[in-house]
Structures are given as C-alpha cells and as structure tokens.
Amino acid sequence: MSEELKFGRVQIHPTRRQVWVDGVPATLGARAFDLLMLLVEQRGRVVPKAELFAKIWPGLFVEENNLSVQIAALRRVLGSNVISTVTGRGYRFVAQASGEGEAAADAAPAGNLPVRLEPLYGREQELIQVRDAFDALSCVTLCGLAGVGKTTLATQAAVQLAAERRYAHGAWRVELGSVTDPAMLPQAVSEVVGIELDGKRDPLRECIAQLQHRELLLVLDNCEHIIDAVATLVDGLLSRARRVHVLATSQEPLRVPGERILRLNPLEVPTSSHDEDATAYGAVRMLLERVRAAMGGIFEPSAPELVEMIEICRQLDGVPLALEFAAARVPVLGLAGVRSRLYDRLRLLARGPRTAPSRHRSVQAALEWSHQLLSPQAQEVLQRLAVFPGGFSLVGAELLLGEQGTEDGENLIEHLNVLVDRSLVTLQPGTPPRYRLLETTRTFALDCLQAESESGDGIDWQARHAQALGRLCLLAARERDSTWMWQEMPNARAALAWALTAPGQGELAVTIATYISVVLAAGGAIREALDHLLDVQPLLDDDCPAPLAARYWHWLGRLGVEGRLPSSQCVEALLTADSMFAALGERRHRHACQRHLAEAELRAGRAERAEQHLAAARELEQTGVSAADRMRRLRVEAMLADARQQHEEALRHQQAALALALAQDVDRYRLLLMADMAWTHLQMGQAEAAVEDFQELLQHFDDSIRQGLARARALSGLTAALVAAGRIEEAVASVGDSVLALQQANLLRSRCEVFAWVAAAAGEVQVAAQLIGAGEAFAAQSETERDPISMLACRHAMALIETRMPEPDYRYWSAQGGSAGETELLGLLGQAFPGMQADAFDGGYA
Fold first, then answer.
1. Is residue 686 in some structural domain?
2. 748 contacts: CB under 8 Å, gap ≥ 6
3. Domain shared by 429 and 516, yes or no
4. Most buried of 310, 331, 403, 481, CB within 10 angstroms?
5. Which residue numbers delimit the DNA-binding region (predicted)?
6. How many Å apart are CA 146 and CA 649, to the nearest integer?
7. In a domain? residue 462
8. 567-581 per-residue burial string, b: 16 or more CB within 10 A, e: under 16
9. Closest-CA residue to 651 (of 676, 687, 615, 617)
10. Closest among 64, 67, 93 to 79, alpha carbons compared
11. pTM above 0.85, yes or no
C-alpha cells in the first residue's frame, strides 16, 4: 500500500509514514502509525486484539492497556468516529475512503437515528455499560428522573451499537411521549419501523409477528406513562423476535424477564466550591459549554465565576435539564445572578427550546409530568417527605407520617418503592439505608404541599417534622446510635429553628438542642452545640421534665469547660445536674457529673476541689459503673497529675485508660488518650518523641467531623511539638490545619500561646505579643488557668519576645491582642502565616 489514502479530513501517506488532518501534519508515534495502517488495511472487518498484539508488538509481552493507550492517541488525532470499539472482540476502522462512499452508503443499515448528536458530559462509563450489556442481553432500560439525560445517552449508545453491530434492518428510535393511548403503541412502532398492519389481527400480535424475522435495534424513548403497554410489547419481542434488541428509556423499569436496568444518576458535581479540577466533573463541563453557547461561543470563566458555576451545579444536583435552563439565563443575569435566584428555581429554570417536548420546556413541566404519573397516595407521600431538608430514614418517615400520613408501614414501604423506582426519591445505601429528594424535586413537592395545606387539610407538616425529630432524638439516644443522629443533623437543625420560634414548643426545643449537643460535641462542632444550648436556656421552666432538665444542665456544664463558658457557670450547671440526677437515682450520670466537675475545677486552677470530685467519682464506682466510665475518670486523673507536674503518674493513668478504651472499642477516647500521652511527652521535654506521637496519631483520623475534637487536639499538639523541636518551617506549615480544627471545636482562643510561640520563633514578634495578650484575656474572661502546654508555649514565646521587643512595645501590642475578637485573631494569624488555608477564615461550623 503505497498510494495516498484519503478518509474525509484525514490523509495518510504510507511510504512517508505521515498523517495529515485538515491539511495539517499530525504527530503520531511509530506504534500508533503501525496500528493505524493495520486497521486501515483490514477495514472491512473487526480486528481482534490478539491479532493486533501479535502484529504490532511481535514477540513481546505487553500490558493490555498499551493497546488502549495507542487507540486513544489515534482517536485524539483523527477524531472519535474513525475507529470503533466492538466490545469483547476488537477494533474496526470505520471511516469511508474516497471512492468508497457509494458502496458504503448502499451497505449502510436503515434507521432514523440522528446524524448530529448532542455531546455527552461525564457519561463515558454509562455509555460503555449500555453497549456492553447487549453482549449478553437483548433489552436494556435506562431509568432516571425527568431531565437527567436518558434520551441523550440512549441515542449516543444506539448510534454506536448500530455502527458496531450493523443491524441488517436498521436502528430506529420511537418517541413515545406523544403516544397518550396505550392501544396506539403497536401502530406508533410500526409507522416508525416501516411495517404495515393489516388490521385483521390484534395490532400487538401482528406488530410482534412482523418484527419476528427482522434484525434491528429498537429505541423506545419515554415509556413511563404507558409503561404496562410497553412492557407487554417488549416481553413479546424478547420471547419471539430473538434478533430484535430493545433500548428503552423510562422513569421506572419495565420489569420484564431478561431486562437489564441501568439507573442514570445526575451528573457528578464537585464536593467543594474551590475544587481545582472542577471541569473534570460532567456537570461543570456541561454548564460551561452551555454558557459558552448562550454567550456566542466566547466565554472563559474567571476563578470567581468558576466558583459560581460549581455552586450552581451543586445546588441543581447536577441535573442536565436544570443546567440547560440555568445556562440560558446567564447572558441576562450573569452567573452570580443565576445562583442568587435559585431560591425561586422553578420560575427561573424555564424557557426551554421551542422544539423540545412540552414536558422539557421548563423544570416545572418536567416535574409535573413525573408527578401526575403517581397515584394520589404516592403524590401525598412525596409531598410530605419533602419537609425533610437532609434526607430521611425509614424510621424518620414513619415518625413523620404516622397514622395520618399512610395507612400502615407496609403502604409506606410500597410508596417509597414506587418513588425510588421513578427516581423521585434517591436511595443512599447504608445501614440503615437513607433516602433523599434532589433539591429541585423537593422544592416542587413543597410547593404542592403548601397548595394542599392551603386547601384545608388542617395539618402543619413543619410542626409534624419537628415533633418527629424530637422523638427520633430520644430514640437514637436510647439506642446510643450517634451515627444515626449525626445523619439526621440537617433535619434536627431545621426542627430546632422552628421550635425556637413556635409558641408552646419549649420542651421540644430543649429536647432537640440537648440531644444533638452530645453528637455535635463528640464530632468536634462544640461551638454549634453550645450555641444551641444557650439558645434554649430561656425556655427551661418548672414544667420541663426533670430527666430532660438534668441532661440539659449536665451538657451545658460539660461543653463549657476549656474556657468556652466561665468556670463558675460550668460548675454551677454541673452541680445543678448532679443534684437532679441524685434525686432521680441515676448513679451513672452522677459519676459523669463528678468527673466533669473535677475537670472544670482543674481548668479554674483549683486542684484540691478537682481531687474531691474525683474521690466522689471513685466512691460511686464502688457500687458499680461501666469500664468505659472508669476509663473517662482515669483520663481526668491524668489531667490532674499533669497539672501537678507528676508526668510519670499521668502516663500511668493514660495507659490504663487507653487499655480500657481498646478493650471497650471506644475509638474516640482512644484517639483523645493518644493525644494526651503525646502532650505529656511534650511537657517532659521529649519534643521529637511528641512529634512522632502526633504524626502517628494523625494517621488514624478520617475526614469525619465525628473525630473533630481529637483531631483538633492532635493538630495543635503537632504544631507545638514541631516548634519545640526547632522545626520552625514545618511548624509554620502546620498552622493552617491547626487553626481550622481548633476553630471548629471552639478552642482557638485557648491555644493562642501555641501560635504565639510559632510566630515568635518565625520572627513575627509583634503578632506573637498580640497572641499572648489574647491568651491572657481569654484566661481572665473564662475564669480558667492556662493549661500546662499553654504555660510552656507562653514561657518560650515570652523568652523570644523579650530579646527582640522593648517592654513598652510589648505592653502596647499585648493590650491590642487582649481586645481582639476571633475575627481579628484570624486576621493576625493570616498576616503571620500567609500560607494558611482560606477555609480557616470562614468562621462557620463544620
């Protein structure tokens, strides 16, 4: 083969080993060129992979992905439609050479698939799954909610299948959205495929009989509104028309034997607004291209605009139809304007293409199409479940709906099954599983619920939601299931916000605030937990049940330690709780109060009182408490020993407590105790050992906020240990993570001295002086003494400051720091350590 070959845009010069595309020389490696020539020479057939390996890499053993890499390189240069993958067999060169067009056209199968295809974004894996499924099956159904992109994917897959398999009688797409009468289905299919029904027999049977001897691909698009009729047709085709392949799109499965169901989720979206690889996500790529089209093809987003695009994608859950409408609004509103108006998304996301089906001319219309296909009972369940802002469990749904929401639990499960099948509710696998409505679907359902309420059903579903969450908090606490409670946190926050302002709901508000504070605190979000407790404090009255009030005062005092509340307020709250628990005969809770009182007194610098409360806790243990409670008491014993500079004794207590934590599988306390032991090593002057301890400890953490408090202690400990070891650059680099974790745990001001030490060691003595002043003010305001680590850090920071700053200057700058709020402290830290993460300055809760 020596003459020049032309395939559309591509010219190949075999003797010169050159390839030109659109008249421009293209760069190909030697292997890629050899592979191309082999495929061109064999373009009348599928070339198996084994043959390609044998001829391109003769006598060599190579990994299979080498072939994939070379094929991908050819497609990048020549275009994606030149080389076709025949799943499970090999590759075929499918471009037409000059002079072959007429013969190729004659051989081309019939069909009505479009010539121009909508691009796919982020659906590469699903496309492969559809094509591969037909290797073993004859029917594939793409399921998903309205507007998720089922038709686009099905059309792309059909075009590729038709090119690869060369169905003798073509590939045909039947759009069923306009077929309102199920009896007309056989006629609609027959008209598209080009067969005639004589009308003498049952149309369905005659249609199947006519197709029985054909080899074709039938794409049945939008089946959900006549699903039973489509299922009957497909079942007949699968039984009697063995060479007919069916690719269906529907909001629910056909449920016929031999069907493969592929559920199409929304496009993937970034998890963070500042994701550097945002355009790698299908949703962002799609929105970007649609905005470009709307703006006349010229649009390159700036960094702030890319953040707006990410947030639009996240708020719209990556639903392609919603992204289409959002992009259409950008030329008038801009990206920021579109994002700011998503609260009114059902009105904003309208005005689709004039040629689109009516159900796709607005998001509202698409959802109404799905909604009207539900039974009245399923519609009611969907609307009522929309009051959950953070997803829900089956138990939560049962608590919400009760007797008025559904006849019984079995009916609820049946309705949920329908809603999940039709992709109106998303199943999130887990133990137990959870469910959620995409936010746009939820907005639509809430609008329907409001209209229902206004029509006079007499039920306040927001109140029902709050009451359900109150009962759920009690149930989760009784089962000691913090994971379940953490999953319900968005719902609990919404319920609490409602109960705080609703007349007569004080007990409900106190219940929710008290029980979620336990989970929030364990996760390190102590600031939020304490704020909730303080918000409901005015609602405590004589009518509040004693067990609830006792738990409230216990947790207020417990979370207020370490300077979050004045020590006197913590001690008063814990004494109140202890007295109430004594009256209730709850010995275990009294034990907790005594050890927390010991910790509060210790933080206030009253070691003798702390010892008295620890003695009371030990006495309560004589009549029996759990090993986990003894572990917690031993940890406070170690704190007391550390405060008295009895570090060896502190280590013994910590080791004993750690052994109990391991035996009881109390993972959170295991991490806290490991951090405590590293702190003790640091106090003993073993800085490098402490660095190793903290670095090893940080390997045990995941990204869950449930480990937030232990992570905050470990990160700040690592910063202190690094500066103590003289590893200043590493200490500076660690500040950002430490600040963020401490801020989330409401511990930032209690660790000012650690950052003062780092700042002074890095030469930022003015900032160090202000941080020392902030630490002094914090100790005075919170009625606490500096803990041993803060005293150690303060001592070293002051030694450095004294050598570099005159005394009058120090007094001035420390006074400035003493009057600074947390926002100003964050500004100071950002000034001294410019590399800190931006997230450390958001001031929000985790």
1. no
2. 739, 742, 822, 825
3. no
4. 310
5. 2-95
6. 66
7. no
8. bebbbbbbebbbebb
9. 676
10. 93
11. no
- For 834, phi then psi, to 5°, come to -60, -20
Of the candidates 319, 334, 363, which is a domain's last residue? 363
Coil, helix or strand for 427? strand
Question: CA-to-CA distance for 554 and 592, rounded, in angstroms?
Answer: 9
Structure confidence at residue 221 (pLDDT): 95
Three-state secondary structure call for residue 667: helix
Residue at 119 is within a domain: no
Token readout for 55 is 């001829």
Q: For residue 424, give its domain range.
A: 374-456
pLDDT at 470: 93
Distance, in Å, from the CA atom of 269 to the CA atom of 286, rounded to the nearest integer, reads: 11
Residues 124, 131: Cα–Cα separation, whole Å = 11
Which residues make Cβ contacts (< 8 Å) with residue 150, sequence separation at least 6? 142, 143, 144, 221, 249, 250, 264
- Please state, in angstroms and rounded to a whole number, the distance separating the CA atoms of residues 80 and 71: 10
pLDDT in tens, 310-369: 999 999 999 999 999 899 899 999 999 999 988 888 778 776 555 555 555 678 888 888
Chain-centre distance for alpha carbon 506: 33
Residue 300, token pair as written in the block? 């390159």
What are the tokens at 117? 């295809």
With vertex at residue 405, the alpha carbon angle to CA 401 and CA 409, rounded to the nearest 5 degrees, is 75
pLDDT tens track for 499-553: 999 999 999 999 999 999 988 887 667 888 999 999 999 999 888 999 999 999 9
- To which H or E segment does residue 537 belong? none
Measure Cα distances from 807 to 757, 759, 798 in Å. Answer: 18, 18, 11
696 and 677 Cβ atoms separated by less than 8 Å? no
Which tokens belong to 526?
Answer: 């102590």
Residue 40 in this model has a pLDDT that exceeds 90: no
Is residue 678 a part of any domain in this protein?
A: no
Each residue's pLDDT tens digit, 624-665? 788 899 999 999 999 999 999 999 999 999 999 999 999 988
CB atoms within 10 A of CB 52: 20
For residue 743, which of 829, 804, 814 has the smallest C-alpha distance? 829
Instruction: List, for residues 186-244, the tens digit of each pLDDT value.
Output: 999 988 888 877 777 899 999 999 899 889 999 999 999 999 999 999 999 999 998 99
Same-domain check for residues 662 and 605:
yes
What gap in Å lies between CA 623 and CA 629, rounded to an integer? 13
Averaged pLDDT of the chain: 86
Confidence of residue 704 (pLDDT cuts 50, 70, 90): low
